[in-house]
Amino acid sequence: MAIKRGENLNVSPGAGDKVLEGDRLVVIGKNESLESLKDYDDKKQ
């Protein structure tokens, strides 16, 4: 996972790094696994 914030890209975020509004997450994995992230986001809204 990586966090893109503006022009900065944190390719190895630590446990203390926060995801802020406007950040973009870069994730790699099987489509089936990534679908669970979409489901989580849908429930949050």
TrEMBL record:
Family annotation (Pfam families): TrkA_C
Domain spans labelled RCK C-terminal: 1-43
InterPro entries: RCK_C, RCK_C_sf
Gene Ontology molecular function, alphabetical: monoatomic cation transmembrane transporter activity
One GO BP annotation of this record: potassium ion transport
Name of this chain's protein: TrkA family protein
Organism per entry: Halanaerobium congolense
